[in-house]
From TrEMBL:
GO terms for cellular component: cytoplasm; DNA topoisomerase type II (double strand cut, ATP-hydrolyzing) complex. InterPro entries: GyrA/parC_rep, Gyrase/topoIV_suA_C, Topo_IIA-like_dom_sf, Topo_IIA_A/C_ab, Topo_IIA_A_a_sf, Topo_IIA_dom_A, Type_II_DNA_Topoisomerases. Gene3D superfamilies: 3.30.1360.40, DNA gyrase/topoisomerase IV, subunit A, C-terminal (2.120.10.90), Topoisomerase II, domain 5 (3.90.199.10), Topoisomerase, domain 3 (1.10.268.10). The gene is gyrA. This is DNA topoisomerase (ATP-hydrolyzing). SUPFAM superfamilies: GyrA/ParC C-terminal domain-like, Type II DNA topoisomerase. It comes from Caldilinea aerophila. Residues 889-900 have a biased composition (Low complexity). The lineage of its organism: Bacteria, Bacillati, Chloroflexota, Caldilineae, Caldilineales. The keyword DNA-binding applies. The keyword Repeat does not apply.
Length: 1004
């Protein structure tokens, strides 16, 4: 039946009664219907699909995946992996009524370390790659929760969140996860909804935790907290693929640049400029190659290579001769070899302009707050997370308090029953049924129903005396826990303290180093130095002129022993952005880019400079590649015959010639030592015959590069200088002889005098002790530092500095090393210690029982990240003294010494002899005590540990890592003949790189 409009009314009757409706058709206005339907669709996409919740940082699909893996499949980090298809099916069938591809793609992304800063899923199999490869089908891959994902779900069973029915009303799922982890900030999120989108960048966990701790400490005045205050902790986004992030952005031509990061954190929207990390490498025949080691976030490497190749074929980029991908499991390495005529800077600029090597990240801090999309500032995001954790801890504490009171009530009944055990037993025996027994216990002894049932359920073994004692101890602990929980719920400030404690525990376990380098410049103003990797490395020079470098983050006993065994004459620390200035024995100088020194193998000095293989290199100095305009210090030069000279640091840095003279050395003399001074310090010189002199450096006027020096110390015949360094007025002078006789004497015993004097006795030299081989100024409070003595045959003997006896100046010292007749001490160096640090053996033992996350390693990586922001002082990298060649006929070779500077606030230490310090460990007074893990804290019946205040980051001050000079090496079987002519190297100085603080666009 139809109406006048031809629309079926479905009202045909049977015996006058209408049929049952199968469906209804009604007339509606299409405009109104589309508006209503589209609005419903839009709200569904916004609230239930595309935008993350500000509290746990998850979209519904991600939340359902994690919940299903944790609750239904028990796929925690300590369980075996299961097929991804099983996981996807569980999520689809119970919680997420959408396509299987959507669920699998979401799960895959949570397992990709190049997509999430802290992956929440541990995948096994092919889960895709940065090359753009798709993950394998779900039937092939397997997965389980990552360890850090446990923090998202912990306490879910304690009624901490609200729940709702699933799509078919057969199961319950959580509205939100407890999320002890600030997931929205550390992993970020992106999604396109209807009429809006979100694009939240990832951040460093340690920085976010520090900012949260700062906000908690000032929560009473949270309104006064500014974005600038929070940015002292959160420097900016930290992308999993690293790269370079420009802080400043030029809005319009001619206008002053804006801080793009601060703008995004203040208003929730900003445009960030990301750039790949690249550097230049010199190859043979004057050619250069560009090496790309890090890409901007979400850049497809394969598509990038194809884009570069297309641009070269089309002629839009010229000067590229070869393009290849050398990436492997050790890291990314895209090599672009240039033609001989190409300008490397121009080619790199074109690559940044025309390829995804440089791109814009549109920051949009949009998330759901109480079910409504809101554009948030950084401060508001942190505040909402703290409020979320306050609610979780309140509900968790109420749940724990309820359970504790219930258990205490039962234990109280059991203890009372044990006090009247005979009467209880008689009552139970006289009862005909369990119900009667329970009622009799309640009536006769006033037990509650719960207590009576617990008494009936109690096993006979619980009647033993020890079991009674356990019940008493349990009851005592329960009362303490009840008191603690009640106090916690009554005191909001203590709830904040628990939040802070848990956050610091998370940072201790999972915190790591920053990956993205933030550059305080605008786009297009990077210098060549900025493009070089900023890595702290050891640079070593052998007596044969071999240069090697190795990352300073990998210290080990084997490395130290290898340096001694091979009789290395120089070892210093520098940045890969520094220049290494090498000096010949006749006072000439040339420079080498530290990044040009190979990490594997070695390279001759003659291959990298204008020197020839016949030139004896006797000193080296690391200086920043770029001057920052405040170089006011000096370089102090010392020769074997006691001649000294001061030149301005900027005079050396400004000379870009292949070779230039820094001191005119007289015939028969050799340059021995070069180190930096501040201009008003005292220096001390030590000779092989045990004499020393102390004088103020201002007595040596500053001279031009080509001038000779002035007398620093008068020497007796056949004597020579073996050490020169800066004086620590409250420190000590360590001296050691070839035969291993060593001692410490206070520098207060060495009075200052005018230069060019004969000096005073510092070490008694006899035929038994041999000549003084090396000396070193030990700074104040260095008794706990380690000294490692190395013999000519490579035997290393470590000992604490305090083990070297403190004696007067004019004594021969104590024999500390047993030597054969053909052996002699050739080197000794000092490693500053950190109280409480574990030795390598202790760390290895602790790793056996430690959870998979290495807390010590996490702390180390964090401190490594801070190293690049440290500013060096003029005395950093104080010299690397090396012994000069011995007189003819001595039958020994010249050796050397090294002083290593670590530009970090962290000291160096070891807790076991012979074990080198980990240069990244924090000093004990600066280290935050390791809080208990979250599970440990919850099991305790006492209030949580108090953790120290989070300190505002400050500029780190350098700490020296010194190598005492190597001494002449006895050559067995040479019959006492001199090998002086073969000595190549004798002094090295490390001068740290100055921190770049440019904040405005430099003038062209």
């Amino acid at each position: 039946m139809t109406d006048t409009n031809g629309v079926s009314t479905n009202t045909a009757s049977n015996n006058g009664a209408p049929d049952a409706f199968i469906g209804a058709v009604r007339i509606a206005d299409i405009t109104q219907e589309m508006q209503t339907a589209y609005l419903d669709y839009a709200m569904s996409v916004i609230v239930a699909r595309a935008l993350p919740d500000v509290r746990d940082g998850l979209k519904p699909v991600h939340r359902r995946i994690l919940y299903a893996m944790w609750h239904d499949l028990s796929l925690t980090y300590d369980k075996p992996h299961k097929k991804s298809a099983r996981i996807v099916g569980e999520v689809l069938g119970k919680y997420h009524p959408h396509g299987d591809a959507a669920v699998y793609d979401a799960m895959v992304r949570m397992a990709q370390p190049f997509s999430l800063r802290y992956p929440l899923i541990d995948g096994q199999g092919n889960f895709g790659s940065i090359d753009g490869d798709n993950a394998a089908a779900m039937r092939y891959t397997e997965a389980r929760l990552a360890r850090i994902a446990d923090l998202m779900l912990e306490d879910l069973e304690k009624e901490t969140v609200d729940w709702h029915d699933n799509f078919d009303n057969t199961l319950r799922e959580p509205d939100i996860l407890p999320a002890a982890l600030p997931n929205l900030l550390i992993n970020g999120s992106s999604g396109i909804a209807v009429g809006m989108a979100t694009n939240i960048p990832p951040h460093n966990l340690g920085e976010v935790v520090d900012a949260l701790a700062y906000m908690i400490d000032h929560y009473d005045h949270v309104d006064a907290i500014t974005t600038e205050a929070l940015m002292r902790f959160i420097k900016g986004p930290d992308f999993p693929t690293g790269g370079i992030l420009y802080r400043y952005r030029e809005e319009n031509k001619g206008e002053e640049e804006a801080d793009a990061i601060a703008q995004g954190y203040s208003v929730g929207k900003s445009r960030l400029i990301l750039q790949a990390k690249a550097h230049f490498e010199e190859i043979s025949r004057g050619r250069t190659r560009i090496v790309i080691t890090e890409l901007p976030y979400q850049t497809n490497k394969t598509a990038l290579l194809e884009r570069i190749a297309d641009l070269v074929r089309d002629g839009k980029i010229e000067g590229i001769g070869d393009l290849r991908d050398e990436s492997d499991r050790t890291g990314m390495r895209i090599v672009i070899e240039l033609t001989r005529s190409a300008d490397p800077k121009a080619v790199l600029a074109d690559l940044f302009k025309y390829t995804p090597l440089q791109q814009t990240f549109g920051m949009q801090l949009l998330a759901l707050v109480d079910g409504q999309p809101r554009l948030l500032s950084l401060k508001r995001m942190l505040q909402l997370f703290i409020q979320h954790r306050q609610e979780i801890i309140r509900r968790r504490s109420e749940f724990d308090l309820k359970k504790a009171k219930e258990r205490a009530h039962i234990v109280e009944g059991l203890l009372r029953a044990l006090d009247i055990l005979d009467e209880v037993i008689q009552t139970i025996r006289r009862s005909q049924t369990v119900e009667t027994a329970r009622n009799n216990l309640m009536h006769n002894f006033k037990f509650t129903e719960l207590q009576a049932q617990a008494i009936l359920d109690m096993q006979l073994r619980r009647l033993a005396a020890l079991e009674r004692k356990k019940l008493q101890e349990e009851y005592k602990e329960l009362k303490q826990r009840i008191a603690y929980l009640e106090d916690l719920l009554a005191n909001p400030h203590k709830v904040l303290g628990v939040i802070k404690e848990e956050l610091l525990a998370i940072k201790q376990e999972f915190g790591d180093a920053r990956r993205t380098q933030i550059v305080d410049r605008t786009k297009g103003t990077l210098t060549t130095t900025d493009l070089l990797p900023d890595q702290r490395v050891w640079v070593s020079l052998s007596k044969n002129g071999d240069l090697r470098r190795q990352a300073v983050s990998k210290p080990s006993a084997s490395i130290v022993r290898q340096v001694g065994k091979d009789s290395q004459v120089a070892l210093l620390t520098a940045s890969t952005r520094d220049y290494l200035y090498v000096f010949s024995k006749d006072g000439r100088c040339s420079r080498i880019g530290v990044h040009e020194i190979p990490e594997e193998g070695s390279k001759k000095v003659a291959d990298l400079t204008g020197f020839t293989g016949r030139d004896a290199i006797t000193a080296a100095l690391a200086l920043p590649r770029e001057r920052n305009g405040d170089e006011t210090g000096f370089i102090f030069l010392v020769t074997e015959q006691g001649i000294v000279k001061r030149v301005r640091t900027e005079d050396v840095q400004s000379n870009t010639g292949s070779e230039f003279t820094v001191i005119n050395v007289e015939e028969g003399d050799r340059l021995l030592r070069a180190f930096r001074t501040q201009g008003e310090q005292e220096v001390i010189l030590v000779s092989a015959q045990g004499q020393s002199i102390r004088f103020n450096e201002e007595e040596v006027r500053s001279m031009g590069l080509s001038a000779g020096g002035v007398g620093g110390m008068k020497l007796k015949p056949n004597d020579r200088i073996v050490y020169a360094g800066l004086v620590d007025p409250t420190g000590e002078l360590l001296t050691v002889t070839r035969a291993g006789f060593a001692k410490r004497s206070p520098l207060a015993d060495y009075s200052a005098q005018g230069r060019n004097g004969g000096g005073i006795v510092t070490h008694k030299v006899t035929d038994k002790t041999g000549e003084v081989a090396a000396a070193l100024v030990l700074p104040t409070r260095s008794e706990s530092d380690w000294l490692v003595f190395v013999t000519a045959r490579g035997v290393a003997k470590p000992m604490l500095a305090v083990e070297v006896p403190a004696m007067g100046r004019g004594v021969q010292g104590k024999a500390l090393v047993e030597l054969s007749s053909q052996d002699a001490i050739v080197a000794v160096w000092r490693i500053e210690s950190v109280k409480g640090e574990k030795s390598e053996e202790q760390r290895e033992e602790s790793e056996v029982s430690r959870t998979p996350i290495d807390r010590t390693r996490s702390t180390t990586e964090r401190s490594t990240a801070e190293r690049s922001t440290t500013k060096r002082s003029a005395t950093d990298g104080e010299t690397v003294p090396l012994a000069s060649p011995p007189p003819a006929g001595s039958g020994v070779k010249s050796g050397g010494s090294v002083k290593k500077t670590v530009t970090d606030k962290k000291s160096i230490s070891t807790a076991d002899k012979g074990k080198p310090a980990n240069v990244d460990q924090q000093p004990s007074e600066a280290r935050t005590p390791s809080p208990p893990t979250l599970n440990e804290r919850k099991k305790k019946a006492v209030p949580p540990l108090q953790t120290p205040e989070v300190q505002t980051p400050e500029e780190a001050t350098p700490v020296a890592f010194e190598f005492i000079e190597q001494v002449p090496e006895v050559q067995p079987g040479k019959g006492g003949k001199s090998d002086r002519g073969k000595s190549k190297l004798s002094a090295v100085v490390s001068v740290p790189e100055a921190q770049i603080k440019t904040k405005k666009k430099p003038k062209a």
